[in-house]
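Milestone 3.1: sequence recovery, worked example.
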């Protein structure tokens, strides 16, 4: 198969993945992904899912959120969110934030940080990256005590 045909086939599958995800039927998506994985390479399926989430972050934010909320445990999405977390940690450290003091992570691979760290992290970040970052961020809200 030529590279051109391979690319065309990838886009055909990508359109189908996006179409199926937009229906927002978890059972249908699971069935279709299982069928896809049996008919083509599992790694190829992973690439399709990653491409689909990036495409959805631009064209259909509701389906983007639905997909990550319902399929967060799929290998390509866990890998993607772990990469986003690593990216965020590196960016925060580079900007002078201190791990354990200004931010930390929890067992669900989420990043706990304060509002200032979030503002710095989101600066100069693409729309797609911001949407992905929002999936892994927990913002620490300071609790102010009242004294009488």
């Amino acid at each position: 198969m030529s590279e051109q045909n391979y690319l065309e086939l990838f886009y055909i599958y990508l359109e189908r993945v996006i179409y199926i995800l937009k229906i927002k039927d978890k059972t249908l998506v699971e069935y279709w992904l299982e069928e896809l994985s049996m008919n083509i390479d599992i790694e190829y399926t992973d690439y399709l899912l990653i491409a689909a989430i990036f495409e959805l972050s631009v064209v259909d934010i509701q389906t983007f959120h639905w997909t990550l909320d319902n399929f967060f445990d799929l290998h390509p999405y866990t890998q993607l969110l772990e990469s986003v977390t690593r990216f965020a940690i590196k960016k925060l450290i580079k900007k002078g934030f201190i791990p354990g003091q200004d931010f930390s992570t929890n067992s669900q691979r989420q990043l706990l940080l304060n509002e200032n760290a979030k503002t710095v992290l989101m600066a100069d970040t693409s729309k797609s990256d911001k949407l992905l970052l929002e999936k892994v961020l927990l913002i620490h809200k300071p609790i102010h005590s009242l004294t009488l």
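Residues 108 and 136 are 9 Å apart (CA to CA). The chain has a mean pLDDT of 88.
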